[in-house]
């Protein structure tokens, strides 16, 4: 699996969870802006952090490489009367990531961190370490 394929797998999982939660997604890698209306929304991003050769080559010259990174989902919910809504939305993503299963991309250390008020929104981050192998 290559980096772009891992990104696509993770973003597809996030999009599936967001669709089920009825939450708007502002994609980090696209030129989107903060929604004008006061609705819950998320901004996912992927940070590739580490990679290393994980094997010696076989007789055919094939080698395995470990690839690691961090998936961060910023959750924004209008501040004010919906004090628990940011936590509820973030918990939906925590549960969805914990249920995520894929043959070649693995998630671990899934957590939620309260950031606080960010402008007109309550802000909570959900993050997960991910790992995949690249064989070539």
Which features does this protein show?
5 strands; alpha+beta; about 25% helix; five-stranded mixed sheet; about 140 residues; 2 helices; single chain
Walk me through this protein's architecture:
This protein is α+β, with helices and mostly antiparallel strands and 136 residues long. The chain is 25% helix and 43% strand. The protein contains 2 helices and 5 strands; from the N terminus they run H-E-E-E-H-E-E. Strands 1-2-3-5-4 form a 5-stranded mixed β-sheet, covered by helices on one side. Strand 4 and strand 5 (121-135) form a beta hairpin. Helix 1 (3-21) packs across helix 2. The longest helix is centred in the first third of the chain and has 19 residues, at 3-21. It is elongated and about 65 Å long. The N and C termini lie close together (9 Å).
Q: What does the secondary structure layout of this molecule look like, with pairings?
A:
Blueprint: H1 3-21, E1 24-25, E2 41-53, E3 64-78, H2 85-99, E4 105-118, E5 121-135
Parallel strand pairs: 1-2
Antiparallel strand pairs: 2-3, 3-5, 4-5
Helix pairs in contact: 1-2
Q: What does the overall shape look like?
A: elongated
Radius of gyration, whole Å: 17 Å
Task: Please bin the fraction of helical residues.
Answer: 25-40%
* Poorly predicted regions: none
Distance between the termini: 9 Å
Would you report the number of β strands? Answer: 5
Strand content: 35-45%
Give the class from helix and strand content and strand pairing. alpha+beta
Q: Estimate the mean pLDDT confidence.
A: 88
What order do the helices and strands follow? HEEEHEE
Q: How many distinct helices?
A: 2
Specify the biggest β-sheet: 5 strands, mixed
Give the strand order, joined by hyphens, for the main sheet: 1-2-3-5-4
